[in-house]
Amino acid sequence: MSQGFRARERTVLHFNVADFAVAVERVEDCRLRQRPLLIAPLQAARAVVYDMSEEAYREGVRKGMPLRQATRICRGAVVLPPRAGLYHKAMLAFFKELQGYSPLIECGQADGHFFADVTGTHRLYGPAPDIGWRVRRQARTGLGINPIWTLGTSKLVAKVASRLVKPVGEYIVTAGEEEAFLAPLPVAVLPGLSVRELEQLRHFQLTTIGALAGLSRHQLMVPFGSRCDYLHDISRGIDDTAVCRPSTATATVDYEHIFADDSNDQEEVEGVVAALVSRAGSSLRGRQQVARRIGIWLRYSDGGPVIRQASCKNGTSGDFLLNTMALAALQRAWTRRTRIRSCRLVCDRLQRQSPQLRLFPEQEGRELREKKVLTAMDALRSRFGHEVIGIGRRIAKGGRQE
Amino acid sequence: MLSSTASASSTGDPGRVEIARPETACGPGKVCPVCVGTCGYSYTEWVDSGFYPEGTKSAAMLGLYGRCFSVVELNYTWYQMARAEPLTRMVENAPPHLLFTAKLTRTMTHERDPNWREQLALYRQGIEPLRKRLVAVLIQLPPDFDRSLANRNYLAALLDGLSELPLAVEFRHHSWAVDSVFAELSRRRVTLVTVDVPALPGLFPALDVVTNPDLFYGRFHGRNREGWRSGNMQKKFNYDYSVEELRAWCVGYLPTIAARADRGILLFNNHVRAQAPRNAAKLATILAEFGSGERI
Fold first, then answer.
1. Among A203, A246, A333, B27, which residue carries the largest CB count within 10 Å?
2. Nearest-angstrom CA–CA distance, B85 and B201
3. Predicted ipTM?
4. What pLDDT digit, counting tens, does each position of A187-217 carry?
5. How far apart are CA B226 and CA B240, in angstroms?
6. Given pLDDT bands bounded at 50, 70 and 90, which one contains residue A388?
7. Pairing of strands B7-10, B16-20
8. What angle (nearest 5°) sits at the alpha carbon of residue B151, between those of residues B149 and B157?
9. Would you place residue B4 in the very low, low, confident or very high pLDDT band (cuts 50, 70, 90)?
10. What tens digit of pLDDT does each residue of A184-194 get?
11. Are residues A79 and A94 in the same domain?
12. Residue B24 has what pLDDT?
C-alpha cells in the first residue's frame, strides 16, 4: 500500500431473490403461492424449464430440464410462460430500494442478484447488518419478495454465504473470518469454477475449500496453469473485484432468444439473429451509441455456450451493418450440426455516436437512405411497438438470401 | 442519596466497579459488582470517531474493546441466528475477562417465524460456546408487542423454551409495566431490563424494579426525542449523556437496584459517533469516584 493511504475494510452486501421469476409471478398472483410453479415457454414440444419454485426443486425439477420431464416429476405444478419484461421491472424496483443506501450497486440480468458496496456509509445509514435487514424488510413490505441477504468483505465471500442459506435467510461473515468461514465448505460453492476444474479438484481429493487453501500457488500451477492465482486467492477469501455500478456508457446491449423447439434450421436461426439485431440496433440508436463489437452466444441442445464475435473499427448502430457483423459471428460460432437451444446477441465496446458529418456529402448516399429508413422505423416502433415493422430478406435466384 | 446506601470501588478488570451494598440487604461486607459496557463493539464509525486507533480492522476490535470494558452485548445475534463455529472462534480470541450478553434473534421477537420453536432450538445450540461467559440472553421485544393474551402466552412459551439460560427481558410497550408481570418475572428469576429512553408516550418507563436477585441489567438508549421514531438508527441512537445526567441516574436508580441484585451490567446503546463507549467510560469513572469517597 502506498504511503499515506490506507485501504478501508470493504463491506459488501449481497441480495439474492431465490427463484426470482417464480417470486415475481407469485407477487402478481398470490394464488400461485399454494402450488409448485414452473416457468417455461408454453406450446413448444421441447421447451425447457426456465425457473421453478422451491417445491418443484425439492421434487427434482432443475433449470434447463425438458418441460415434459419436469411436469412428469412434479405433476401438480402450474406452468407459466416467462415474462422477461415483468422480471426486468421487478429488478428495477429492487434496484431503486437499494439506491437509498449505496451508490455502488451491481445487478444481474433479471435474476434477482444484487451486490451493494456499503463501505463508508455507516455515518449515514448505520451498521451494515442493519442496512441488510432494512432492505429486506422494505423488499418484503413494498415489493412482496423476500431476498436472502449476506454480508462480507468481498463479493466472493458474500456470494458463497448466500449459497449456504438458500432459499431464505441471512449470513454475516465478520471481517477477518473469511478463511475460517470458507475452510470447511465444499469447493463446489466457490463461484467461477468450471466443470472441468471441479472434476480435477475431485480427482485430487480436494473436496473442501480448506484443503485447496492448503496448497501454494506453485503447487496449484502444475494442474491448473494460469488459473492457479485465482484458485489460490478465492480459497483464502481474497477477492478485490469491485462492485461495478451499471453505467450506460460501459453497459452492453444484450438480447436473447430461446427456441421453443431446438433448431438447426439455417433460415430460422438467421431470422432470429436478424430480429435480435433489430432490437439491439433500435436500443443503440435510442441511447445514441454505436457498438464496435457484436458477440453471438449459441447454446446447443447438449451443452454449454459457444461464443464468437465480430467487430468493426468505427462502430455502428445501423441494423444493416450490425446484421452483417452478427451473421459473421454466427458463422464462426455455428460449427456443429447439433440443434441450437438459445441464441444471445451481445453488443459491447459501446461508444457515443459521433456527431461529426462526412466531409463529402455525396459519400453518404446509401448510408443516408438507410438511416432515414431506420429513423422512420424507430418512430413507428416507438408508437406501435417493436413488432409492427421489420426488415425483410430477399431470396435471390438460386436461393441465396440478400 | 446513593452515597448514603452504597459505595463503589474499581477492580482490576476494566469498566468493572464494585458497589458496596447496605448491610440489611445480604449481610455485611457484600458487594455488587457492576460492569459497564456497550451494545455491540464492531462499529467502523468508532475508528473514525477515535475510540479505536486509526486503521483498526474489525478482527482487532474485540481485543481493543476488552482493554476498556469487561462486558459486551452481542447484537449481531439479533440480525442472524447465532452460529456455534464463529462464536467459538470469537470467544477463543476474546480477552479472558470479557463477559457477554447476546440478543435473541429477531425471528423470535420482532419478526416472529411460524417455526419459532425450531429457531429456539437452533439459538440454544448456537449460543453454546458462550455458555461459561454468558451473563444473559436479552429478549428485546418490539414496540408493538403489547400485553395482550396472545403475547403473554407467547412470552411465557419463549421463557419456558429458554429456561436453561440466564434471561433478561426488555419491553418497549408501556402496558407491561404492571406488578403481575414483575411478579411472574421474579418467580422465573428473569431479569427485567432497566431502560433509559426518551420521555415519549407509549414507551416502557424507566423503573428501579429488580425481578432477578442474580442480575440487574440496564440499557441506555439515549434520550433523543426527535430521532427516536425516525426509522434511522443514526438519528435514533445519536445522544451524548452528560455527567450530570449520568450522576442523576446513579442517584435515582443505582441504590435500589444494586441493593437487590448480586451483580449488574450497564450497557450503552447510543453507538453513533462512539458516544456509547465514551459515556460508558464516563459512568465507570462516576462509579469509581463514588468508591473513593466522593458523593454522587
1. A333
2. 42
3. 0.88
4. 999 998 888 899 999 999 999 999 999 999 9
5. 14
6. confident
7. antiparallel
8. 105
9. very low
10. 999 999 998 88
11. no
12. 55
Contact B234 A126 (CB under 8 A): yes
Do A65 and A91 fall into the same domain? no
Residue of B nearest to A124 (CA): B234
Going A112 to A118 to A124 to A128, the CA torsion angle's sign is positive
What is the CATH classification number for the domain harbouring A354? 3.30.1490.100
Residue of chain B whose alpha carbon sits nearest to that of A183: B85
Task: Assign A50 to helix, strand or coil.
Answer: coil
Spatial distance between the Cα atoms of A50 and A40, rounded to a whole number of angstroms? 5
A92 and A231, same structural domain?
yes
Interface test with A, best of B73, B78, B80 (most A CBs within 10 A): B80
Q: Which CATH code fits B2-291? A: 3.20.20.410
**Residue A142 and residue A219 in one domain:** yes
- Please tell me if residue B23 touches chain A, with a CB cutoff of 8 Å: no
Domain count across chain A = 3
Structural domain boundaries in chain B: 2-291
Q: How many CB pairs under 8 A join A and B?
A: 62
Identify whether residues A73 and A142 lie together within a single domain: no
Partner residue facing B89 (CB), from A132, A172, A177: A177
**Distance to chain A for B86, nearest Cα, Å:** 8
Instruction: Give how far A165 is from chain B: nearest CA, Å.
Output: 11
- At position B91, the amino acid (one-letter code) is V
Question: In CATH, what number is assigned to the domain containing residue A41?
Answer: 3.40.1170.60
A180/B89 Cβ within 8 A: yes
Is pLDDT of B168 > 90? yes
Q: How would you classify the pairing of strands B134-140 and B99-103?
A: parallel
A130 to B233: CB separation less than 8 angstroms, yes or no:
yes
Partner-chain contact A129 B48, CB within 8 Å = no
Please report residues of B whose CB lies closer than 8 A to that of A133. Answer: 79, 106
CA–CA separation, B66 vs A214, rounded Å? 33
In which domain, by residue range, is A343 found? 253-388
Kindly determine whether residue A175 and residue B57, on different chains, have CB atoms separated by under 8 Å: yes
Q: Report pLDDT digits (tens) over A139-182.
A: 999 999 999 999 999 999 999 999 999 788 899 999 999 999 99
How many whole angstroms separate alpha carbon A71 and alpha carbon A75?
5
Does the beta carbon of A170 lie under 8 angstroms from any beta carbon of chain B? yes
